[in-house]
Design a protein that fits this description.
alpha/beta, three-stranded parallel beta sheet, Rossmann fold, six-stranded parallel beta sheet, 10 helices, binds NADPH dihydro-nicotinamide-adenine-dinucleotide phosphate, globular
Length: 302
């Protein structure tokens, strides 16, 4: 952040480290008291470089928390039937308490067919329609990790969010819709904006909490943001960075950080923000899934 910036930083490194430490404590307790080691599996189809990095990071974080990590790397030409067979195998594997298929999958595979095939109780990413429906109905569900991470960060900055106006830009099943559901559950007044919304800056300016989950680099500028608002930037966009050298790139969010930090009350950085929370929440989901499977109570504040 520049020295003139006014917003406080919602630091994903600190908040995610705290959550991962709490996960590790719980994992140690499950091992000690129940002889249970939660297991998280990830299936990666093909070799998309960004996905490779995510999968490697997830595996490292899983082991660091004391959990079992399983990785299945399938070639890009894997058929949908073969992928669904792998999903069925993990559904039946008692050592795997949660798993996900890293998206995107190659074009010849239907992402929805894959999601539908995952046992909802092992759906670490919370994408199965049953979990989405349960979340929308206010019932216990596997909650998508990135949205959960957004909520934790918003609460970290804003405490009780009740009555606040939250504007979520983006309506994907992966981020926008579940973030909106979670904010609604916190008693926010929620507006969901998207590519067909009229006068997006005016809508965004109404927000006490602004969540950007769009995939457009630096789209949100300072004149989109109410003074003092909490700004959660979900976007991860790779852009050219000629200042780092020819052909170099860097990651930026959907929010123009330096510009918006001049007016926001609190803001998440990219990198070092929501992305780190996603991994921590995935680990937490796996512990929750393991406990539900074995009818073990978790501490209320876990
Ligand atoms: P999608 O492409 O699935 O959804 C993008 C949403 O943004 C859509 O609802 C779309 O509207 C809306 N949108 C697109 N362009 C505009 C625009 N010009 N104005 C207003 N709304 C617009 O993306 P995801 O939800 O999967 O991801 C969003 C971002 O978050 C990406 O940058 C992605 O990389 C990042 N991400 C980060 C994660 C993390 O761990 N930090 C995890 C997952 C995603 P419409 O529906 O009308 O098309």
């Amino acid at each position: 952040m520049t020295s003139s910036a006014k917003a406080s930083l919602i630091d994903g490194k600190i908040i995610s480290a705290d959550l991962r430490a709490r996960v590790a404590v719980e994992v140690a307790r499950l091992k000690r008291e129940h002889g249970l080691t939660p297991g998280l599996a990830v299936i990666l189809v093909g070799n998309d470089p960004a996905s490779e990095v995510y999968v490697r990071n997830k595996g490292l974080a899983t082991k660091e928390a004391g959990m079992n990590s399983y990785e299945y790397r399938l070639p890009a030409e894997t058929s949908e039937a073969d992928l669904l067979a792998k999903v069925a195998e993990l559904n039946a594997d008692p050592a795997v308490h949660g798993f996900l298929v890293q998206f995107p999958v190659p074009d010849h595979i239907s992402q929805q067919n894959v999601i539908d095939a995952i046992d909802p109780s092992k759906d670490a990413d919370g994408l199965h329609p049953l979990n989405a429906g349960r979340l929308a109905s206010g019932l216990p569900a596997m909650v998508p990790a990135t949205p959960e991470g957004c909520l934790i960060m918003a609460k970290h900055a804003g405490g009780d969010l009740s009555g606040k106006h939250a504007v979520v830009i983006g309506r994907s099943n992966l981020v926008g819709k579940p973030v909106a559901q979670l904010l609604l559950k916190e008693n926010c007044t929620v507006t969901i904006a998207h590519s067909r919304s009229h006068d997006l800056p005016a809508i965004a300016r109404e927000a006490d909490i602004l969540v950007a989950a769009v995939g457009r680099p630096n789209m949100v500028k300072r004149d989109w943001v109410k003074k003092g608002a909490i700004v959660i930037d979900v976007g991860i966009n790779r852009v050219p960075a000629p200042e780092k050298g020819e052909g170099k790139t860097k990651l930026v969010g959907d929010v123009d950080f330096a510009d918006v930090a001049e007016v926001a009350g609190a803001i998440t950085p990219v990198p070092g923000g929501v992305g780190l929370m996603t991994v921590a929440c995935l680990l937490r989901n796996t512990v929750i899934a393991a406990c539900r499977r074995h009818a073990i109570d978790l501490p209320k504040d876990f």
